């Protein structure tokens, strides 16, 4: 499916269940979570997107292995993420972090959700991980299924474009090593099977 078709699938679910407030969009790195979240939000007036990337542990608090594997589940603060999502579900409002790609670190208090927001779309790799104990907080759990080799191609280009790596060769190495390890961990954990809706992402 292309991005528009994927968004249509979620909008169809919203029409069936208008009470849906929190959507979780998960998937392996490079599967298109952010793109899909923004596509859905653009078609629901007042919807807010919350990226899990805001819960990166700051670089100053990571050791050498954490910096090398940044993006792995252990380089995020899953406890604070869960507490924030629980508070959001209870209060339907709050202030949440975003990720500053220029600084390559989270930015506190960057996203405001007010009580008039009809929908919150949370996107990230690890939303449904067993150890995060967060999947029950989402009214609709969406997993984007993506071919592992295709995700490598997408990540290779993205790493170079965003300055994560200096060259395409370095980007591909990162995609084939650290990113692939993260992808395999997500799939092995059963995140896909915990979704209500599984959508297939492709370039076509």
Characterization of this structure:
With 204 residues, the chain is α/β, with parallel strands linked by helices. It has one domain: 3-Layer(aba) Sandwich (Rossmann fold). Helix content is 39%, strand content 20%. The chain has six helices and seven strands; from the N terminus they run αβαβααββββααβ. A five-stranded parallel β-sheet has the order 2-5-1-6-7, with helices on one face. The protein has a two-stranded antiparallel sheet with strand order 3-4. Strand 3 (94-100) and strand 4 form a beta hairpin. Helix 1 (3-16) packs across helix 2 and helix 5 (148-162) crosses helix 6 (168-189). The longest helix has 22 residues, at 168-189. It is globular and about 45 Å long. 33% of the residues are buried. The mean pLDDT is 93.
Summarize this, please?
The protein has 204 residues and is of the alpha/beta class. It has helices at 3-16, 33-41, 64-68, 78-91, 148-162, 168-189, and strands at residues 22-27, 48-51, 94-100, 105-113, 120-123, 140-145, 197-200.
């Amino acid at each position: 499916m292309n991005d528009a078709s994927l968004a249509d699938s979620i909008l169809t679910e919203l029409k069936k269940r208008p009470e849906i407030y929190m959507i979780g969009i998960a998937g392996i790195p490079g599967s298109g979570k952010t793109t899909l979240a923004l596509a859905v939000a653009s078609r629901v007036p007042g919807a807010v997107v919350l990226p899990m990337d805001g819960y990166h542990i700051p670089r100053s608090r990571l050791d050498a292995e954490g910096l090398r594997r940044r993006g792995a589940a252990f380089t995020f603060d899953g406890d604070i993420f869960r507490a924030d999502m629980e508070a959001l579900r209870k209060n339907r409002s709050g202030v949440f972090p975003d990720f500053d790609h220029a600084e390559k670190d989270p930015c506190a208090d960057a996203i405001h959700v007010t009580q008039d927001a009809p929908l919150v779309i949370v996107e990230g790799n690890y939303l449904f991980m067993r150890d995060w104990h967060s999947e029950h907080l989402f009214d609709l759990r969406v997993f984007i299924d993506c071919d592992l080799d295709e995700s490598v191609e997408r990540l290779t280009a993205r790493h170079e474009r965003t300055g994560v790596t200096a060259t395409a060769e370095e980007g591909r190495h990162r995609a084939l090593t650290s990113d692939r390890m993260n992808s395999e961990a997500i799939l092995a954990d059963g995140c896909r099977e915990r979704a209500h809706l599984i959508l297939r992402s492709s370039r076509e």
